[in-house]
Amino acid sequence: MNDFSKSVATFRNAYSNQALNLRLAPAALGGLSHDWCGLQVADVVANYTLHKIGAAHGTPGTNPAKANDFDVHLYPCLQRSAAGVVGWKVW
Prior knowledge:
The protein is mostly helical. It folds into 2 domains: 1-35, no CATH class; 37-91. Helix content is 55%, strand content 0%. The protein has helices spanning 2-9, 25-35, 37-56, 64-74. The longest helix has 20 residues, at 37-56.
């Protein structure tokens, strides 16, 4: 995370040559995932979801085991509305 935060902190806008606010860059962009387990869980769910979608579309490099694990372990846990609609959408 430190390398990521340093990269973000040294980023400069190619048009204006303006840097990001140093108070914002490391803490808000690099620190959240490192310090907040809720975001780490969301990252894991997103990773398995992408493998599920990639496998369904025949995308090279997808992991069939992760796609299956999404179906078996994560999909049943997703929030549903009163109509039974799963709380996610493929864009």
